[in-house]
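#struct-help
A.M.: can someone run this one for me? Single chain, 104 residues.
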Amino acid sequence: MSKIAHRFARLVWYGCLWLMRRPWMKRLQRSSRRLFPPALQGRAQESLLRQNRFARRFGLRILTVLFTFMLGYMALVVAYVGVIALYESGFFNLPRELAGRTGR
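D.P.: on it. Structure tokens below:
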């Protein structure tokens, strides 16, 4: 399951990097500094650079872990729903002939 999660993470990571390299996205990031007062614009730019460095360094690993958890959770939900469906259909009940022999 980890290989599947890694594949999904790589696809999403590729999409994120592609989007972040678009000129309009770069302009949007640069212009986001203007939301802050002039005294804080330098700190805002540094914060944005730190966030981008962190994302480039750990982003793919974080996405891989998240997709692994998501796929594991989906497998548990599918198994649970399958068992409930089998129970409701009577799959786990003993046939009448065998139920009488057990003495219950």
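A.M.: thanks! The chain is about 80% helix and 0% strand.
D.P.: also worth noting: The chain has a mean pLDDT of 90.
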